Amino acid sequence: MEQRTRESFGSRFAVIMAMAGSAIGLGNIWRFPYMTGRYGGAAFILVYVATSFLLALPIMLSETIIGRRSRSNTFGAMENLAPGTRWKWLGLLTVLSPMLILSYYSVVGGWSVEYLLKSCMQDFVRADSGEVASMFGSFISSAWPPVIMHTVFLLMVAGIVLAGVKSGIERFTKLTMPVLFVLIVLMLVYSVSLPGARKGIMYLVKPDFSRLTAEAVAAAMGQSFFSLSLGVGTMLTYASYIRKDENIFASGVGTAVSDMAFALLAGFAVMPAVFAGGIEPGAGPGLVFETLPFIFNKIGASMPWLGTAISVIFFITILVAALTSAISMMEVGTAYLVEEKHMNRFGAVAVIFCFVWAAGLLCSLSFGPLSHVRIFGNGIFDFLDKLCSNFLMTFGGLLFTVFAGWKMKTSDVRDEFTNGGTIRSNEFWFKTVYFLIRYVAPAAIVMIFVTNLIID
Ligand code: PFF
User: Fold this and answer.
1) pTM over the 0.90 mark
2) Which of 46, 168, 276, 389 could form a disulfide with 163 if both were Cys (CB 3.0 to 4.6 A apart)?
């Protein structure tokens, strides 16, 4: 195997913060609460937690094992571990898919920049619920303001990635991830103390199994998938920066647990406020942007500064969470261009920036001037979101588990998992995890895939 001098994360804390930084993002704060609202509250959460361990964790470990074993970008990993085979297409696909995700993710990242600025300027104070909702509608459907914010967001992402793995990604995630937990706990404390919050809490803890349809189960699996950034090579690429003496099972479990804990905290920070404000919990993707600013200000009506402060804290949380995820997506392509195309880091980041910016431009305009463009009945933004989260991520995840479970030698997988047999406790877990990787995860992914195909 080719050996290169590559950067590595400095400690286990750094590894978990970077991987959790990728995992914790809009998926936790923006997507998780409205999916829970749509699919039956606590029943959905139970399936989500179970699948995070039984399905998502094995896929994450597959990517981690491949990444650290090859110490390479996604394409190089396939060329290292299965030279001259068609597996290189998986490597190439997973260079492309995070860039596609980043293009629309960055548009939503731009919305959070705008909402942070709006909160700081107290734009929501005294607006009624209709006005807040129409503010959102007119902002996203306008031509340039969302494009400018998308550009600002993407420039921040590029700046961090340009600084490198250790001085950029590691430093930023180590600094911001603990702060993120503090901010979401602050939000939660405020939210559950509101009059009428009890209903929201009950909604999250009392399961309604009658709403747990096949679609809801597939959605819960899809949520754990999206939330842990699986199937698109981000975990693989980050794992390639994990030192050989690090325990990847412990890092993987640490990441999955942090991600899940954050999603639950976000659920308890958002839902009680939603109920306290008398809003429908299944309000959909607009929940966070269309309704929360109104709720914060309604609640803070007697003390406008409090409503403003909470709103600012909330949108800082969303923005930082989106940034730590977005950098992981940009790093995948950057590592590929630097290692395979021998570009310097600046050139690589510039190329990816241009591609993602242009694709993001189309996504952003698809809410306004390009709303007439339909691809298979969807607008550009929705089409990309569906293509990536329902198909590319699941397809990539399936192939990564098949690669780790069936293509790699069992002895190599075990060797990575137990650091050459030196971590005794991992020897104990190996059989279970390997079974999940080989049989359970691929079967479950095929099920999600087929369900999504039928639903769409
Ligand atoms: N896990 C991120 C979130 O929950 O917001 C989304 C994500 C990040 C998806 C990185 C894919 C990815 F490669």
Assistant:
1) yes
2) 168
